[in-house]
Design a protein that fits this description.
Distance between the termini: 68 Å
Shape: extended
Strand content: under 5%
Radius of gyration: 21 Å
Helix content: over 70%
Order of helices and strands: HHHHHHH
Number of helices: 7
Length: about 150
């Protein structure tokens, strides 16, 4: 069977399952909004318990991370993510899931060669490029600020 690229593309498109984009976007919007609303509720709760704004914010972040890691560890986060799609990738919960998943997947190799070496397999590039971009934009901001003033 010798087909050119265009023929194969038409063949594959005709048999490909159509993606329910509107439904997927709605699920992501609702689930991501629910996670953010839960975070806002936690922060309000911690503030009502007497914590300052900064402490309440830090405890809210820690709580969301802890919940995401626990749900990842017991296998629930993946089922939720499969249903809600990108909505669970709200940065703090998605990042926690990425780190926890890497640790869980490599735990059979031992703590140092497995978990220690591979825990940031997925999250590592995010950290590296995030820090790099922050540094570059910091230099750009500094230079522009010095030139303008």
């Amino acid at each position: 069977m010798n087909q050119d690229n265009d023929t194969y593309r038409r063949y594959a498109q005709a048999r490909a399952k159509k993606s329910p984009v509107v439904r997927d976007c709605a699920r992501a919007f609702v689930s991501g909004g629910a996670i953010c609303a839960a975070g806002h509720g936690l922060r309000a709760l911690y503030t009502c318990l007497g914590l300052g704004a900064d402490d309440a914010g830090m405890l809210t972040s820690a709580t969301l991370i802890l919940v995401a890691v626990i749900l990842t560890g017991i296998g629930v986060f993946d089922r939720i993510a499969r249903f809600t799609g990108a909505g669970t990738l709200v940065p703090i919960t998605g990042f926690a899931n990425a780190v926890a998943s890497s640790a869980i997947d490599s735990r059979t190799e031992g703590y140092v060669p497995g978990v220690g070496a591979k825990i940031f397999t997925v999250a590592g590039p995010v950290l590296v490029w995030g820090i790099f971009a922050g540094g570059v934009w910091g230099v750009v901001y500094f230079v522009l600020k010095e030139l303008i003033l």
